C-alpha cells in the first residue's frame, strides 16, 4: 500500500511538471517561481485557522487540520517541500495576499469576481454556498431571507469575510452582531446568544453533526452556490498554473473525494447535502 501511494505521488509530480515545463531544442527549464519555492524548502500558506472543517488551528496541538490543510500538505509534497503556515484573518486576507506574506492562501476561500479583480484565484476544487445555521427548535422559522430579515432576529457573524458582507447586503433589518472568533459562533447560537449565522454549507453541516441543538434548514437549498479556490498575489501566474494542474490531478486521482469523505462526509453529514467538486455556477444573492 505504501509503495502504491509513493508511485501515485511520483506520477502526480511528473504529470504536473509535464504540464509546466517549457520545452525548446530538447532542453527543459522549470518555472522560476517553482524553483524559488523548492530552494527555500517551504511553501508558505496563509490560513485564518478558524474554519471547520476546512482549515482549523487546533489549540491543543498547534497544528492545522481539515480538508484544506490536507490539500496544502499534498501540494507541498508534490513540490518536495514542507508547509509553513502564515497566520492571517478574514479582514486582512486580501491585504496580506497582495503584500506577498505567503505564496498562497488556502482556508475555505470562495472564488468571487471581486477577489479575482484584485488578485489571482485558482480553479475551483470544492463546491459550497451560503446557508443558514440556527437552533434546531427554530428550523421551521428561518427558511428564507425574508424570515431572517426582521428587527427581532439576531444574526451573528465574524468580521471581514463574505458572511458578514452577505448579511449586511441581504439582511439590513436584522440585528447584526459581530463576533471576532468564528468557531465560537455556532455554540453561541445554540446557547441562545444569537438566532442565526449565515455561513457556508460545509461549515453548517459540520457543526450540525457535532451539536444536535443546531440545524441547517436550507443546506440543500442555499442562497448562493460557488466554488472554493486558492488565493494568490498578483505576479504569481507560474505558481497558479502549477496549482491548477495540481487540482486537476487531485480530482482525477480521486483524492478530492477522499478528503471530502475524511473531513466532511465522515462527520455524519449525508453526502447529498454537500456539493461535489464539479464546478457549479455562482448565483447572485
Describe the SSE topology.
Elements: H1 2-20, E1 22-24, E2 27-29, H2 32-40, E3 42-47, E4 50-51, E5 55-58, E6 63-65, H3 67-79, E7 82-87, H4 93-98, E8 104-105, H5 113-118, E9 120-121, E10 126-128, E11 130-135, H6 145-148, E12 154-157, H7 162-170, E13 175-178, H8 185-191, E14 196-200, H9 201-210, E15 214-215, E16 226-228, E17 231-232, H10 237-253, H11 255-263
Parallel strand pairs: 3-7, 3-8, 12-13
Antiparallel strand pairs: 1-2, 4-5, 5-6, 9-17, 10-16, 11-14, 11-15
Helix pairs in contact: 1-10
Question: Can you walk through the features of this model?
Answer:
- It is a single chain.
- β12 (154-157), α7 and β13 form a beta-alpha-beta unit.
- The longest helix is centred in the N-terminal third of the chain and has 19 residues, at 2-20.
- Strands 7-3-8 form a three-stranded parallel beta sheet.
- The chain starts with a helix and ends in a 22-residue tail after the last helix.
- It has helices at 2-20, 32-40, 67-79, 93-98, 113-118, 145-148, 162-170, 185-191, 201-210, 237-253, 255-263, and strands at residues 22-24, 27-29, 42-47, 50-51, 55-58, 63-65, 82-87, 104-105, 120-121, 126-128, 130-135, 154-157, 175-178, 196-200, 214-215, 226-228, 231-232.
- The chain has two domains: 2-127 and 225-273, D-Maltodextrin-Binding Protein, domain 2; 130-215, Periplasmic binding protein-like II (D-Maltodextrin-Binding Protein, domain 2), CATH 3.40.190.10.
- The model is unreliable at 22-27 and 267-285 (pLDDT under 50).
- By secondary structure, the protein is of the alpha+beta class.
